[in-house]
Write a structure and sequence with these properties.
Blueprint (H helix, E strand, L loop, with lengths): L2 H5 L1 E2 H9 L4 H8 L4 H19 L4 E14 L10 E17 L4 E8 L12 E4 H4 L8 H19 L8 H14 L9 E7 L9 H15 L11 H11 L10 H8 L5 E5 L4 E6 L5 E7 L8 H8 L1 H17 L18 H4 L3 H10 L6 H10 L3 H11 L15 H24 L2 H13 L8 H13 L18 H14 L3 E5 L7 E7 L1 H4 L3 H12 L5 E3 L7 E2 L7
Parallel strand pairs: 4-6
Antiparallel strand pairs: 1-2, 2-3, 2-13, 3-6, 3-7, 4-5, 7-8, 9-11, 9-12, 10-11
């Protein structure tokens, strides 16, 4: 069957088939049998809204992207590390789209998030000839460099590198998609209607869902199929990096959770390149939940830059300034390090105790100027210059040569959190909920401004040398430093209430926003559901918004009934 036979139809055909129940089997697969009628109505609303805003003519495509939840692995995906994700069933962003002959992209929105105004996003119109870069930006480094230039220009023009217009998110993915397919098919204009039930404050990455869904729709209007024409790793890594045009420095695992999600599974999402590294199912008596903390997240971009830069700098310090002094007979170990994720005993072929010794050699605090001077003294100034150009130059607006950088505790956090992701997979598959819940609590503790001392690392090294199970990276909190007192207090009181049958932690970028974790179903739909509800009303001062995050299917174009 052709692309048109599978993915396109007139507006009237879409509406008639959805209304007649022809898609009910597919809706049952995606959303669950009990939600078929709800999603039949949702799709009809999105289709009708597109027709009302753009007219009913032409052939349409429909793309969908779920929200996602991060169950373990906070703050580490931009270090190339995996995180444990699930696509949230029933929290979808839909995009209805139609190809146009012009070079303009028009996008409007219809939002159905609880408490969300339908007109939160004003309609946008994008001139492709104005926004598309002349250079190819389909490789990660090129995307980073391009986003850095755009943000620097915005900073010079407006005084801020951050963009608050949602059109920038659409522009970023269009730049990537156009560049990716430039030699195959020219990207033209299209009309799109965004319908979403993903709450912007629900901790499920609503902005990333918008990016993925509009990208899939843009591809679909040009006869391009995700996964067939753009492999999953390119879809995830490219769209994730395209968001840097916004002025933020996020990772790509949110997009990985949305694209690689599987029904009933938590998936360990690796990045650079994107891939599924493992999976686990929740025990039947536990549920994943996302809870709006009611604490407004206040971004500090200067602090965020300082935390993000710790990862490439840690990799450089370890590979170029520490390991060569350790292993004169095997200088090749340093060549195995590109990202901070590479600082593992397996990759470096060192005993587990050596990683704690390596951490003890990392500076607690340094600056870019100091590391540069050390690199030049060690004869690797050229390698520092290459790292600087690749990972730092033009990509940060607030970072200076003398900005204090807290390296050891953030490096310790990253390596420990990476191990916690692997541990969660192992413990969930083994049915060991006690240790799985413990890791959630430890991960939360890792977000404080707490130094990792020499004595603690020496003790862990000794324990690791003895084969002590508790002397593993996963049980070391570290000190990433994105926590606020109010945010922490809420997590602590919720965990105290749950006791040994649940654990929550901060979610997302930190500083506030949402909390989430794994909770026994007795608190969700069992005998203690009322107790939890009463407790949350008291803890949050009234109404609360809690989502049970059931693992669902990943993002895709909607296929017509009977299509292969």
């Amino acid at each position: 069957m052709s692309f048109n036979d599978i993915y396109t139809a007139t507006g009237q055909q879409w509406q008639q088939q959805v209304a007649a129940g022809d898609f009910d089997r597919e809706f049952a697969r995606i959303y669950g049998l009990d939600q078929v009628a709800v999603w039949r109505a949702n799709y009809l609303e999105a289709l009708a809204c597109f027709a009302a805003r753009f007219g009913g003519e032409g052939e349409w495509v429909v793309a969908r992207c779920p929200g996602q939840m991060n169950a373990m692995g906070m703050h580490i995906d931009y270090g190339g590390m995996p995180s444990l994700r699930l696509a949230v069933r029933g929290a979808d962003t839909l995009v209805v789209a139609r190809k146009m002959q012009s070079r303009r992209v028009r996008v409007s929105s219809r939002l159905r998030s609880p408490g969300e105004a339908e007109d939160r996003f004003a309609p946008i119109e994008i001139d492709l000839d104005r926004i598309l870069p002349t250079e190819r930006v389909c490789e990660r480094q090129a995307l980073m460099d391009y986003a850095g230039r755009v943000c620097q220009q915005r900073l010079e023009r407006t005084g801020s590198a951050l963009a608050d217009d949602w059109s920038v998110l659409v522009e970023g993915q269009l730049a990537y998609v156009e560049s990716y397919f430039r030699d195959r098919i020219p990207l033209g204009g299209f009309d799109g209607l965004v319908w979403s039930s993903v709450s912007p404050s629900g901790g499920m990455s609503s902005s990333s869902a918008l990016v993925v869904a509009t990208a899939l729709a843009a591809m679909g209007t040009h006869g391009l199929v995700p996964r067939r024409d753009m492999p999953e790793q390119d879809l995830v890594d490219g769209l994730g990096m395209s968001e840097w045009i916004r002025g933020t420095r996020g990772g790509t695992a949110d997009h990985g959770g949305m694209v690689l999600g599987r029904a009933g599974k938590l998936v360990s999402v690796g990045v650079f390149p994107a891939r599924a590294e493992g999976e686990a199912a929740l025990p039947d008596d536990y549920a994943a939940v996302v809870l709006d903390s009611g604490i407004e997240r206040q971004y500090d971009e200067a602090v965020k830059e300082e935390t993000v830069i710790a990862y490439p700098l840690s990799a450089f310090i370890a590979g170029e300034l520490i390991l060569p002094r350790w292993e004169h007979a095997d200088g090749g170990r340093a060549d195995r390090i590109r990202y901070i994720r590479d600082l593992t005993s397996e990759n470096l072929q060192l005993p587990p105790a050596a990683i704690f010794e390596l951490l003890a050699q990392m500076p607690q605090q340094t600056t870019l100027a100091r590391v540069q001077a050390q690199a030049e003294k060690a004869g690797v100034g050229d390698r520092y210059a290459a790292m600087y150009q690749r990972d730092i130059a033009g990509k940060y607006q607030y970072l200076t040569a003398d900005t204090p950088l807290y390296i050891r505790r953030r490096c310790a956090y990253a390596l420990a959190e990476q191990d916690r992701v692997a541990g969660m997979i192992d413990y969930l598959n083994a049915g060991d909920m006690t240790t799985a819940l413990e890791l959630i609590r430890i991960s939360h503790r890792g977000d404080f401004d707490v130094e990792v001392g020499d004595g603690e690392l020496r003790e862990l090294a000794v324990g690791a040398g003895r084969g002590d199970e508790r002397a593993r990276l996963r049980f070391l909190p570290g000190g990433y430093g994105r926590m606020t007192p109010a945010y922490d207090r809420l997590v602590q009181v919720v965990n105290a209430f749950l006791g040994e049958r649940g654990a929550v932690q901060r979610l997302g970028a930190g500083w506030g926003g949402n909390i989430g974790g794994l909770i026994h179903r007795d608190f969700i739909d069992g005998p203690q559901a009322g107790e939890l509800a009463d407790f949350l009303r008291g803890a949050l001062g009234g109404a609360f918004d809690m989502v049970v995050a059931t693992p669902g299917e990943g993002a895709a174009l909607l296929a017509r009934p009977g299509a292969a």
